[in-house]
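TICKET #2291
ISSUE: user wants both folds in one file
ATTACHMENT 1:
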Amino acid sequence: MADSPQRVHRPLSPHLQIYRPLFTMVMSIVHRITGVGLYFGTAILVWWLLAAATSPSAFETFRSVAGSPIGLLVLFGYTWALLHHALGGVRHFIWDFIHGFGPKERVLLAQASLAASVALTVILWVVGLAVKG
C-alpha cells in the first residue's frame, strides 16, 4: 500500500477571521440585531397600552419612566431600530424583484437605508418634540 499524504487540518467552514467585514455584511448583522431589539422593545408598547387601559396612575408611572433621560434614549433607539429594520425590509423587497444585486447597487442600497433611518429618526423626533411643545 502506498503511503497517503498527511492530512491538512483546516477549518470546516469559513470563519470571520478569513473574511474581511464588508459594509453590506455589517448591515446584515445590524438588521438582525434590530430585529431582536424590536422583539424585546415590543414589551415597551405592551406596557404603554396596558398602562393606558388600566388607570391614570399606571399611565403616569409609564410616562415618568419613559420621560426620563434613559427612557427617552431607549425610545429613540427603538424608533431608529424600527425605521432601520423597516428600510432593510424595503431593501430586501427590492432584491425580491431581482434588482440591486450589482456590487455598487448593494452598497448604495445599504448606505441609503442607514442614512435614511438616521435622518427619518431625527426628523420624527424633532417634529414630535415640536408638536409636544
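ATTACHMENT 2:
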Amino acid sequence: MTPPQRRRRHPREQPPPEPVTEGGAAEGEGKQPERLYILAGAADGGERAPIDLVTLIVTSADPPPAATPEQSALLRLCRAPLSVAEISAYLSLPFSVVTMLITDLLAAELVQARAPIVRQAVPDRSLLEAVMHGLQKL
C-alpha cells in the first residue's frame, strides 16, 4: 500500500517568466566575460618572453589602431615603468594572460622589458669616502 499524497488546497501562483533579451540572457544578468584564450590571442606555438612578476615594462609609443583593447590599456598604463604584477592587478587579468600580451608587444617592439633595480647590500666604499670628504670641507 502506498502512503497518501498531500495536496494543496490553494496552488501557488507561478511568477511570470523573465523577459529574454536579444543576446539570450535574461535582464539583470551581467554580460559574460571574454574567455581568456581570446584575450591572449591565438597560440601559434611561439614561446613566451622570460618575464617574471617583478619585471618592469615601459613604453613610450601610443597604441596603434590595430591593437586590441587589452593591449591598448596595457600600453597606456606603461608610460611609466610598472611591474608585471601591477599590470596584472590594474587590468584584472591573470599573470599568464598578461605575459602573453606583453610577449606580443615585445615582438612588435612597442614595449621594453627591464630587470628590476637591485640595490647592493653594502654601499660602495669610494662613494662613502667622497661624501665624507665633501661634508668635512663644509
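RESOLUTION: both attachments delivered.
EXTRA DETAIL ON ATTACHMENT 2: The mean pLDDT is 76.
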